[in-house]
Specification:
By secondary structure, this protein is mainly α. The protein has 15 helices and three strands. It has helices spanning about 5-15, 30-35, 45-65, 70-95, 130-155, 160-185, 190-195, 205-230, 235-260, 260-265, 270-295, 300-315, 340-365, 430-435, 450-465, and strands spanning about 25, 105-110, 125-130. A three-stranded antiparallel sheet has the order 1-2-3, covered by helices on one side. α8 (about 205-230) runs antiparallel to α9 (about 235-260) and α11 (about 270-295) runs antiparallel to α12. The protein is elongated and about 90 Å long.
Length: about 475
């Protein structure tokens, strides 16, 4: 009855999905220098910034085209590229009269989140846009998913604290997209409704808001794994509460997708959605298991047996698509690799339940309730691990053509409303410009609160302890 928790729990509780990343069309020949050739004449610093942006974008494409994608290297390139794109966007936004193009900007990207077999053409198509905001959003979404894949690498290596930090960073990036960048873009987009069905999942507010919840849950999964790999007996009640929080966050992720982005939810990889359903049920089963261990250690033998019995039921295969229990596992699907852990956990719980029932019938004689009483159920703890992302803002670059370029001129699309300024003066600093542009002003931070134990664990994870 004092048997330690099995190793199978660790792998089941820490199972996460590795996402594909969005990709720039390899045939894309876009060049900021060529497009802004006339507008940058006489502005050496502006021309230098455009050259650096082109170079960094080529670095991003080169990393994407590598036979073995190095997500850490790609993240490093995108981290540098994103502020450059934002600076060009702001330069056009605050100087629309002089921001003229010699060559049209066409940004061509393919989704990472969407699943090819779920599209009409049965393959991922590239989506083209002239909006600089589109380039900024897709670059940021790619940065987020690259960071998450670095976290997946850390998880495989057993470095759960670092994996937790990576997923928290990803959650912060998606939260910035869903709470700030995309709402401002869509509020100023005339084609918002018309483009809903055709647009990429990464450009939808509902998708990004939902994925922020997902990666918060994944970060908390790594927090649980960090506790479980440490020697000694864990705080059973704390681990159980964290698992309830993970299950709730995963449920919230699915609900947000279903209510706010049903069109794009249908385009996600079905194996990922199956994993999410699987993880929700596993986390609830594991939470009941640790509740049982906590109750047994506290000499509440009858309720402990009831909790463990419920955990064994939660780990059974469901008999209906919407019933309780684990979803059906495709023999050719990714969950097949967890079958041995599932069976190991079931065997462990069955043996432990038999031993407890025997001890209770011979020694303790504690009444076993038909289910866990409400006052004994664990309350969820949500660490809300999300590292705030702050987009580096640089002052707009000076633009200004002295003559009209041959072949006509065209204003670049920023993807947002323009603030008109007269003549050709130097652009305003970002701080001055933002005073007249409320959508760019940041809002107050959301207050966050957890139990003392959760805060302590959170601090230890962030410090790498």
């Amino acid at each position: 009855s004092d048997a330690p928790h099995p190793d199978s729990i660790l792998r089941l509780a820490s199972a996460v999905h590795r996402f594909a990343i969005p990709l720039i069309n390899p045939d894309d020949q876009l060049s900021f220098v060529e497009s802004f050739k006339t507008a940058t004449e006489g502005h050496a610093d502006t021309l230098d910034a455009m050259r650096k942006a082109d170079g960094r974008r080529e670095g991003v494409k080169k990393n994407m085209a590598a036979s073995e994608l190095n997500h850490a290297a790609l993240s490093a390139e995108l981290k540098e590229y994103i502020p450059m794109v934002n600076q060009i966007l702001l330069s056009c936004k605050f100087q629309p009269e002089v921001a003229r193009l010699d060559k049209r900007l066409f940004f061509s990207w393919r989704s990472g989140l969407e699943y090819a077999a779920n599209t009409k053409a049965k393959k991922k198509a590239y989506f083209d846009s002239e909006a600089l905001m589109f380039e900024l959003v897709l670059s940021m979404a790619t940065y987020a998913l690259s960071e998450s894949n670095v976290g997946c690498d850390s998880c495989v290596e057993g470095d759960f604290p670092n994996a937790s930090r990576q997923f928290a960073r990803t959650a912060g990036l998606f939260q910035h997209l869903g709470d700030e960048l995309l709402p401002n873009w869509m509020a100023n987009s005339k084609q918002h409704a018309e483009m809903e069905a055709e647009s990429l999942a990464e450009t939808r507010v509902g998708v990004c808001a939902a994925f922020a919840k997902l990666f918060q849950a994944m970060a908390q999964q790594m927090a649980v794994a960090t506790v479980l790999v440490k020697p000694g007996v864990p705080n059973y009640a704390l681990v159980g509460k964290l698992c309830v929080g993970i299950a709730d966050d995963l449920d919230a992720f699915v609900s947000a997708l279903r209510s706010k982005a049903p069109v794009h939810m249908a385009r996600l990889d079905p194996s990922f959605l199956t994993l999410t359903t699987f993880s929700v049920n596993v986390q609830r089963a594991v939470s009941l298991y640790f509740l049982a261990r906590s109750l047994w250690a506290g000499c509440e033998y009858g309720v402990a047996i009831a909790a463990l019995s419920e955990a064994t039921v939660a780990m059974r295969n469901r008999t209906t698509p919407t019933g309780r229990g684990l979803p059906e596992i495709d023999p050719r699907g990714p969950l097949q690799s967890l079958v041995s852990e599932i069976n190991g956990f079931r065997t462990h719980m069955a043996g432990l339940l038999q031993a407890w029932e025997k001890d209770n019938s011979l020694v303790y004689f504690d009444r076993v309730p038909p289910s866990v009483p409400a006052d004994k159920a664990l309350k969820a703890i949500h660490l809300k691990k999300s590292e705030e992302y702050v987009l580096e803002v640089r002052d707009p670059l000076p633009l200004g053509a002295q003559a009209e370029p041959a072949g006509g001129v065209r204003e670049p699309s920023t993807g947002s409303g323009n603030m008109r300024i007269g003549g050709n003066p130097p652009p305003p600093s970002y701080d001055k410009a933002v005073m007249n542009d409320p959508p760019l002003q940041g809002g107050p931070e959301l207050s966050r609160s957890d139990s003392d134990l959760a805060r302590e664990l959170h601090a230890k994870l962030n410090s790498g302890a």
